[in-house]
Write a structure and sequence with these properties.
- Helix 1 packs antiparallel against helix 2 and helix 2 runs antiparallel to helix 4.
- The longest helix is centred in the middle third of the chain and has 36 residues.
- This protein is mainly alpha-helical and 151 residues long.
Amino acid sequence: MLYSLSHALHVLAAVIWVGGMFFAYVCLRPVLGTKEPADRLGTWVQVFERFFPWVIASIGILFLSGFHLIYHHGGFSDIGHYIWGMLTIAVLMTGIFKFLYLAPYRHLRRGVEESNHKVAGFALGTIRKLVATNLVLGILVIVIATAFKSW
C-alpha cells in the first residue's frame, strides 16, 4: 500500500513539474510573445508565482517518494542503472531550478517592479533557456522511466 502511494505521488509530482514546463514553454510562451513587454513580463511573474510553489513541492515529493521506492527495492546497492540515471538527472534538474529561482527569477521580479523592461527581459530570456533545458531533461527522465527499465 505504501509502495503504491509512493509510486503514485512520484508520478504525479513529475507530471506537475514536467507538464507545467511543457505548457509554459510550448503553449503559454508563444501567446504571451504577442503582448506588450510590460504586460508579458508582468504576466510571467504572476505565472511563476503560482507555478514555482508547485515545483518546490514536487521536488520534495519526488525525492522523498523516490528514496522510499529505492528503499523498497533493496537500497542503493540493488537499483538498476536506469534509476541511477533518473536520480542523477533529478539532482541536475533541481540544481538548475534552484539557480533559476534564486537568480534570474529575482531579477525578473525586480525588473517588473521597477518597470525596467531591459533587466526583466534579459532575466526572462535566461529563464526560458533554463526551462527549456529542464524540460528536455524531464522528458528524458520520463523516457528512461518508461522505456529503459531493462538497463
